[in-house]
Structure formats: structure tokens, C-alpha cells
# Entry
Amino acid sequence: MPVVEHPSVPKKIIVIGAGVIGVTTAYQLAREGHRVQVVEQADGPGLETSFANGGQLSAGEVAPWAGPGVPMQALKWLGRADAPLRLRLRLDPDQWVWLWRFWRRCTAKAQRDGASRNVGLALLSRELMTKTLADLEADGTPLDFDRREKGILRIFATDDEADYAAREAEHLESYGLHQKRLSAAECVALEPALASAHQRGEVAGGVYSADDTSGDAYKFTSGLATAAERLGVTFFYGETVRGLERLGSRITHVRTDTRRLDADLVVMAAGVMSPELMVNIGGRLPVYPVKGYSVTLPVPDDGSAPTVSVTDEARRIVVSRLGNRLRAAGQAEVAGYDLTLEQDRAQSVLTALQALFPALGEDVEPEFWCGLRPMTPDGCPVLGPVPGCDNLLLNTGHGTLGWTQALGSAVLIADMVAGRDPKVDPAFFSIDRF
Ligand SMILES: Cc1cc2nc3c(=O)[nH]c(=O)nc-3n(C[C@H](O)[C@H](O)[C@H](O)COP(=O)(O)OP(=O)(O)OC[C@H]3O[C@@H](n4cnc5c(N)ncnc54)[C@H](O)[C@@H]3O)c2cc1C
# Structure
């Protein structure tokens, strides 16, 4: 395979995009001795979808969104302004094709298959997080991103739902992911801030992934970008890639708005913009934006705010404690590339957070944000070579799991460049599956 031609020779590699995926890729490739340049249209790293996400590193929540019951649920929510899932149909063939493929995967089997693929990458990333943080600490440059190692607790409004989730968790046990079914009382013992939700009868039980963690993805991404710079990575910020120039089966240049950069190898990590950049070389990528919202609040350190990361399955929000801030994220809107922050959508995430944790009160100073998840219809990322193109690797389409799977994806790409056997089967994530 030409991508691994002369694997031991350091290569000149261009990474497109400095979100959490591009930055982890650049860091890993630089550690392995490659000369890496990153082109990023924003003025710094992690300023798009990786900026204010839900903060969860959640190997326990790797099931694709396409699942049984989702189409019916989406229909029921049609027309509701605060619906957690919203569809805005557009005259966009890419959206229709994406929705068709998503709909076809709304089965228990497809969802379980996707989860078992995703979990390997998430667990590899978890292992690499420990190693990366230890390496940075040993180098005297520790990375602080408000990390919490208190696990992630999913709570359910009914016993049936908690039991179903526990059965799915058992299935993932064989891949090395350990989770525990908790009673309602155990959920409250673990996270006392859930007491009032429990009293109102909203917590029937939970599933706890004790080894999962949470933190601030933006702080992580920008801190790791600094570490990558120390390893010699060059970042061209404020520079937009306009196209890839191809000669035969090779990308010869990456053309930006100010220059042409030549490279031995190009890694596509441009999030939701990746498909557009593939068009001019005749490639098609089934990645479509799914918009989500988050709200971040300052919280007092008096014990009233939660410290364990929580996923409220009934309200469809995730909550993470980031130092003296609390973040909730949710909403899924398949509506194209529009990044307008709609107040009612953002407010519904805040309302859900306040309903779950009433002790936060009404008098809060929220910071709202929205971002576009780069989603594939099957909920698994697209990693690896592009048929017919010898020196282009894809690292995109991570959807709801970009931070959770970033380090594992980066190492998979580095393994491909080095011609090593990857720890996770790359065929699971190949573009050929579409
Ligand atoms: C509300 C919400 C909550 C989420 N919660 C979680 C969570 O709890 N845990 C989790 O793991 N994941 C979560 N995610 C998903 C996660 O944030 C994404 O999967 C991840 O950020 C995607 O990273 P990326 O690097 O692919 O994309 P991005 O961060 O968007 O990076 C792509 C970069 O490419 C750049 N770019 C694009 N086009 C060009 C061009 N032509 N030239 C130069 N640069 C270009 C962009 O400017 C951007 O910086 C959440 C997402 C949302 C929206």
C-alpha cells in the first residue's frame, strides 16, 4: 500500500484542521519523528466543534444514535421547538442520502455492531490518555484541562430502560468495558446532587462506567497543540484550505488561500467540512453535520453542584463538571451547516439542566454555544486510506464521540503511516463500508 511505502522514513505530512482530531493526529505523528504542518482556518486550535462539547470521555456511551425506535421518536417530536432531535429537511441530496442511510441502520443489530466497533477505539483512547498525560508530566509540561476521574453515570427514568442499558453494557463487557447497574439509591449515593430528582421519582436506576472521565475538550486541544508545537509541528492558523491538487493517484499539493504546500502525505481532519474538501478530488464522504448545543455555568464550590459526569437519558443531556463550572450539552438537529445559535434550543438545554439539578437555581449566568457534530450515518468514524488515492488518509466523522476517540484514531493513523499492525481493526472504520 503506497501510504506505507518506506514506513521507516520520516515524512512531510499536512494535517487539515486543528480540532481535537487534527491536533491529536499532529501530536502523535510528530512524536514519531514526522515533519508535520497543520492548516486551520480559525485563529487557533479547537475553536469549532471541539470548543464547548459535553466534556465526556465516554467509552460507556458508544452506541450509535441510529437505533430501534429512533424514527418513531423523531416523528413524535416533529414540530416541538424543544425536541431533543429535530429534522429540517432541505433541498440537499447529501442530507437525503445521509438520512436514508441513517434510517436503514435504525435496528438493534446495527446499533450493537456500531457500539462494538466504537468501544475498541474508545478504550484504546482511554489507555492513550493516561500515557499521553504521563508523558507530558514527565516532560515537565503537564496538561491541565479540568479532568475528573469520577466516572460517568447514566440515569434512567424507568427500570425497563435501565435494565435494557445494563444488558447492552454486558455485551460490551467482552470488549473490556466494565460498567455497573446501580439502583436509584446507589445513584444518589454516588452523586448526592441527584437527591431531589430521585425524590421526584425521576431516577429509577443507572449504569455507571467508573473508569470513564470528563474534562474540558478545548483546554485539552489547545494544551496538546502547544505540546505539538514543542515537538516541531507548525500550525498555520487563519489559513483556509481551498483545494487538494491531484496528479494521478497522488495528492501533490494542498492549496490554501495564500500558498501551495507540498507533502508526502495529507491527513483530512476538517470535521464537518471534510466532505466538501474531498469533492474536488472526486471523493465522497458520508459525513453530515448534526447540530448540538451546550450551556456552561459558573457554580459555587459548596457541594451543591454535581461532581460526577451524568447523562440524563430522559432529558437527553450530558452534564460535566469542569473545575468551578458546570456544562450541559444536548440537542441533535439535522439541518445543514447553519451555525446560528437559536435561543429556544439553547434555553431548552439550560432548562433541562436546572430541572435535573434545581439547587443550581434560576439566577445563573449561562454561556451558550452550538457546534456541528461531523456524523456518519452508522455512528462510527471514517479512518484510513481513500480508494484510488495513495497519500491521503481520512480521520473524520467522529460524530458524538470525537474527543472520546481522538487519541485512538490518531494512533491508528500513525500505525498506518508506520506500516504497523494497529491495535484496532482498521477495516471497521474504512470508507469502503459505505
Ligand atoms: C453539543 C455537543 C456535545 C458533544 N459532546 C461530546 C462529548 O461529551 N464527548 C465527545 O467525545 N464528543 C462530544 N461531541 C463531539 C465532538 O465534539 C466532535 O466529534 C469533535 O469535536 C470533532 O472534532 P474534529 O476535530 O473532527 O472537528 P472540529 O473540532 O470541528 O475541527 C475541524 C477543524 O477543521 C477546520 N477546517 C475546516 N475546514 C477547513 C479548511 N478548508 N481549511 C482549514 N481548516 C479547516 C475547522 O476550522 C475546525 O477547527 C459533542 C459535540 C457537540 C456539538
About this structure: Residues 64-108+146-212+288-375 form a domain with the D-Amino Acid Oxidase; Chain A, domain 2 fold (CATH 3.30.9.10). Residues 108-138 form the longest helix (31 residues).
